[in-house]
Amino acid sequence: MKIKLKRSSVLEGGKAKEPTPAQMEYGELAVNYNASDPSVFIKDSNNQIVKISENNNDIGDGSLTLKSFGTGDSSTGTFTANQTGSSDITLPQISYTDLKDVPPNAAAPGNGALTIETAGEGASSTGTFTANQAGASTLTLPTIRYEDLSGRPAIGNGTITIKQPGTSDQAFTVNQSGNTEINLKNDNTNTTYTASNGVLLTGTNFTADTTVVRTTGDQNIGGNKRFTQSVDCFNAEITGFGDNAVGIAIGKFANAKRTTATQNVAVGFETLSENTTGNNNTAIGVQSLWKGTAPRNCVAVGQLALSQNNEQNCVAVGKSAAQLSNAASTTAIGSSTLNALTTGTNNTSIGFSSALALTSGSNNVSIGVGSMQTASISERNVAVGPQSLSSLTEGSQNVAIGDRAGITLTTGNNNICIGKEGNGLVAVFEGTTESNYINMGNRDITDAYVRVAWTVVSDERDKTNFKTVPHGLDFVNKLKPISYQFKLNRTSDKSTGSIRYGFKAQDILELEGDNPVVIDNKDENLLKYKGEHLVPILVNAIQELSQELDELKKSLPVK
User: How far is residue 342's CA from residue 347's CA, in Å, rounded to a whole number?
Assistant: First the structure.
């Protein structure tokens, strides 16, 4: 007979609370291990709950009613049932005159046999009785033992068989007057563990050495201990300290497959559950560092953080942070950061959904909510600020610093974007696929201050396609210098900033023609002036004037 086991410690009216038939299956054993009334229950074949053990050493006195041979007359007497000896029943005298409808020629009561059925499934124990007309009648029963009963465990000492999934049957000895010993097989290793000092049915403390037991309440344990409480939700293993200490595992299947792994801390369902040899890891949260068999020097905090990781030197904090990553030197802080990363290495992302779609890109740094959130295979980018480089997909070696900095860039490479964009602030240059540019500030900037001017590289060895500048004095003569102030925005005539000298880009563009140099017209909606390119034109104009002056001097009479 295979028995499943339920456990409870609930009292009702000072007695162990009886389970309902709906709460139990046939053959299932319910143990109430409270200190006041430890009891055992079972459901019989009539769908009734039977209490088969309680904190008593005997059954106690009871009453027995014997019906006469007639139509209802009865005489009652008391009996004492004792587990350790025979049971006596004392009846009052029953005379023929007390009986009705006695068959003709009925014999007087004499010696005979009496059969008493147990509460089980038909097993019985028989005893003899003497019926005496002139005095009391005595019934003598033999001792009733566990093995005399069928379909239910006994009240006193005996053995119950427990079947564990995947293991052979194990013995369970119940003893009313002493400790109860449990011999079970470990579900994972088929190694038999025995509670060396037993488990007290009437208490909450246990003493065990390398044992597996099940209990509730505060436990006193010492040394290297392993215990489980409600197997489906709580396991714990505390295995000492020092360089070779296994560590701490709390939660079902936490660090469950460990072989030589040391110095690990696993807290939560299936944390580090597949780890066999990986060392110096900390996993806190359901299925964090779940699948790796040999991760090293990793920290995962949050549900599914680093759940697929089998590499080293990784840190993930937040739900699903670096969930799919199996890449070394990964740092993900924030829910869903680096959530899709698989093989990209040396990435650091901080902020919710930062680098959310990155899969195989490496050596990226993204800091801020949503920063680099659409990049997939991009490499060597730095994005600092909420949603910075948030539209980038495949671009590499870009730097964006500021709220939404570089937000329009998609596939460009080697760009630098500094300054806030979005929410009405527009970048000076909104690049998308362009490469190798620097964009600083936005269109609301009115002044830029620096102690010294830019020093520009102008080495001949870096240049090619040399030609003369086509513009000179005539071009300069047509320039229209102006003073101006910036508008607050395109739709307003309100000025902002100080008075400036300069030119209208449209005027210079008209002078330059189809291939402008002084004016940058890549973005026709925002023309830009490159003043350094006007300098060579001014030099040409001065040289032309100088030549004219020389010619004029030659025409003058010599004094």
Answer: 11
